[in-house]
Write a structure and sequence with these properties.
Chains A, B: This is MarR family transcriptional regulator. Chains A, B: Pfam families: MarR_2 (PF12802). Chains A, B: InterPro entries: HTH_MarR-typ, Tscrpt_reg_MarR-type_CS, WH-like_DNA-bd_sf, WH_DNA-bd_sf. The structure is a homodimer of 144-residue chains. Chain A has 144 residues and is mainly alpha-helical. The first copy, chain A, has one domain: Arc Repressor Mutant, subunit A. Chain A is 67% helix and 7% strand. A two-stranded antiparallel ribbon of chain A has the order 1-2. In chain A, a hairpin with a 7-residue loop joins strand 1 and strand 2. Chain A is globular and about 50 Å long. Chains A and B meet through helix 1, helix 5 and helix 6 of A and helix 1, helix 5 and helix 6 of B. Chain A binds a DNA duplex (30 and 30 nucleotides) through helix 1, helix 3 and helix 4.
DNA sequence: ACAACATAGTTGACTTAGTCAACCACAACA
DNA sequence: TGTTGTGGTTGACTAAGTCAACTATGTTGT
């Protein structure tokens, strides 16, 4: 019988989310792990990423993302910039305050990352990530 | 810089949950993936598992689990049996109908499982699962 | 040029998942 | 026997995810 991958994966994600939430929450201002996830992407592709790009990357529902972005704008971490190529769309930029949050919370996230990786080799981590990507790809392929 | 494990893992779980939901939902009667997860455990340890055992295994919050079980009982898939050793507690048993659901939905889950694993070797799967368990363990250790 | 269709983003309404605190009944034990 | 601990339940809540309908703009084919 084929090994069941789901259960350990559910467990891992559960633990990871909890640790992340704790790590983030300490400092805390109205930011959830999901906000952080989006904020990091915006920070990385500063002013060169649209809401739809983020939907493609993350598979977050576009409705949900619209609200997340609205909240991040409300908090002053993110702003919209006109997209001259498409008036329906806009680029997302991060503010100085937003950058600060990302920096601050990235160190918290990295602590969690390190804890998670303890006892594993770099090669194992790399393989793990590769397999995770492959499996996600398999599932997504199959879903259209 | 250390590789970020979170993003591919979030993606994978997201895709997996969506596929699972689709697979389960086709047949469908008031069952969510989480119900299924619990139901499978009860089926496996039939009449030898308590609510608290499941909490230990899955890290599902005990409040949430109490409600899940209540729902499964309401659907007639699960029943409580007195625990002679501890009157606060009870063993969980699965009904014939419950078994049927588990069988039926297991085949759907296995389809998802196979899609996810396509292109990977058994060895890779085994390693992946081992690493996932190790990482969850690392995080949980650290959290008390 | 313009109708038909597609896409980016928004809003509403909803379900599922996860969390925390308070509580009850019973257990364990000093 | 009283204090403290544990299994389970309920209330009240937040976070995450989903689906459908809609607006405004873009794209394509004729």
């Amino acid at each position: 019988m084929s090994e069941n991958i789901k259960e350990p994966l559910f467990n891992l994600l559960h633990s990871m989310k909890r640790s992340l939430r704790q790590a983030i929450e300490v400092d805390n201002l109205g930011i959830t792990p999901l906000h952080m996830r989006v904020l990091k992407i915006i920070s990385f592709y500063n002013q060169k990423v649209t809401a739809n790009d983020i939907v493609q990357k993350t598979l977050i529902d576009k409705a949900q993302l619209a609200r997340l972005i609205k909240e991040l704008i409300g908090l002053g971490y993110v702003s919209k910039l006109d997209n001259p190529n498409d008036k329906r769309s806009y680029y997302l930029g991060i503010s100085g305050e937003g950058e600060q949050i990302v920096k601050q919370l990235s160190t918290a996230e990295n602590r969690v990352n390190e804890i998670m990786k303890s006892g594993l080799t770099e090669q194992e981590i790399a393989d793990f990530v590769r397999l995770a990507k492959q499996m996600a790809h398999n599932l997504n392929q199959h879903n259209e």
